[in-house]
Amino acid sequence: MKIIIISIIIGLIYSYQKVLYNKFWDKGLRISVEFDREIVETGQKAGLNMVVTNEKKLPLPTLHVKYAVDRSLEFDNNENAVISDMHHRNDVFSIMGYQRIKRNLEFTANKRGVYDIIDVSLIVRELFMTKSFAKKLDTGNSIYVLPEKKNVNKIEAFFINACGEIAVNRSMQRDDLMFRGIRDYQAYDSIRTINWKQTARCGRPLVNEYEFTKDCDTKIMLNLDTHNMIKPDPLLEESISLCSSVSLMLLKRRTAVALLSNACDMFTKESIDVKSGGDIKHQKTIDKALARIDGTFGKDYFLASLKKELEAASTNTTYVVISPYYKENLLEILDKYVKKGIKVLMVVPYYDLHKFEKTRAYQLGWEVKYDEV
Known about the structure:
Elements: H1 2-24, E1 29-35, E2 39-41, E3 45-54, E4 60-70, E5 73-75, E6 81-83, E7 86-95, E8 99-109, E9 113-116, E10 118-125, E11 132-136, E12 142-146, H2 153-169, E13 177-184, H3 196-202, E14 206-212, E15 217-222, H4 232-252, E16 256-265, E17 271-277, H5 282-291, E18 293-296, H6 299-312, E19 317-322, H7 328-339, E20 344-351, E21 363-368
Parallel strand pairs: 2-12, 15-16, 15-19, 19-20, 20-21
Antiparallel strand pairs: 1-3, 3-8, 4-7, 4-10, 5-8, 6-7, 9-12, 10-11, 13-14, 16-17, 16-18
Helix pairs in contact: 4-5, 6-7
């Protein structure tokens, strides 16, 4: 008899709670899954914030929040995660009535790009775990992973020396540079920057070093096409990182920077074109544009852009070309810039297993270790 009574009571409780969960399981239930910031540098840590709020008396003994992010976002804790083409997570909560639970999951952003939280869904089970309730949720915010910054002291010195030649060529009509000091001669230095007096005094080659003023303008031309097809992606990523690093270096020196590229913007599906800006905050605009790069319009598009730019190019602007492609058809166009009196600097990322032969004075090779990519 007791067993029958207990069975009836359990049956009534089961039926009653089933009705309650059918009707009220998602009432007052709010789920938030968002990145804790909009921007992070490649290699830095960020977080994913989760907030589960249950604004009713009915407890939710088992609640699953499922979602996916790009696998390049490497979480410190991979419990309840499956990593395939994406990083799929299944975070489990047990929440009482009128309770709020917050979690922050730290991750390292390992690759440049713009990443979303996708396929966000919710699964709740009732007290007896016999029935599940599911619901799709709105996706969270996006996070920009900005390009990795490189040490570009070598490029900086090369650029300053070139600007020194500009000042000489213009017969000092513009005060683009201020003398900053003297340092040892490097292989990429121009002979015209050698301080012969100090060289004779010290017994070793010394060169003058210059400081930019705010009147100096620069346009970075970024080409995302390679000289050959051996592992092209790392070279292209290196080019993007160099573009970001050179831009930051110039803006810190109060030099206005513009950017033009044959890279494709993942949102607009157009080529990257960032207008000139001289404030350090302009770096954020450039970096976000670089983070949005997803593909390229190809070599021919870049060559056409160079030709079009030449028509309106001013001798008051220095062009910094960053390109892992450096065949003659590109160099011949840059030669026309030089012939017109426009200063050009070309940075060429290349693998160490391929010897880079410098054929123009305006070229600077940038070696990338093949075994490290």
